[in-house]
Amino acid sequence: RFAIEMQGLHLEGCGQYEDAMVQYRRCLEMVAAQGGNKAHEKVYHGKIGSCLENLKRYDEAASAYEQSAEAAEAAGDGAGALEKRRFAIEKQGQHLDGCGQYED
Q: How far apart are the C-alpha atoms of 104 and 98, rounded to whole Å?
């Protein structure tokens, strides 16, 4: 799993966010297959949220951050993930404002 995560980090660093998310999702599958570790789930959902945010897919990023927050809460560490979710929602609002969709 570590090698796959490193590949995801490399791809993310190169701006290949879609490919990075594939690697992070593979990591999530491996974590689930090993019985689930909420701390690791928090990290991978957060990384996916970051990629989605970089792709300006704010709704999906907020959902990924929500999953990260839920995993963090289950792991006993919810503050950081909730802050990321709040940030994604703010960015989504800024994007909608820039598109003239003020009511959304």
A: 12
pTM over 0.90? The answer is no
CA separation for the pair 50, 86 (Å, rounded) = 13
The predicted-structure confidence for 81-104, as pLDDT tens digits, reads as follows 566 666 666 666 655 555 444 444
The 3-class SS string of the chain reads CHHHHHHHHHHHHCCCHHHHHHHHHHHHHHHHHCCCCHHHHHHHHHHHHHHHHHCCCHHHHHHHHHHHHHHHHHHCCCHHHHHHHHHHHHHHHHHHHHCCCCCC
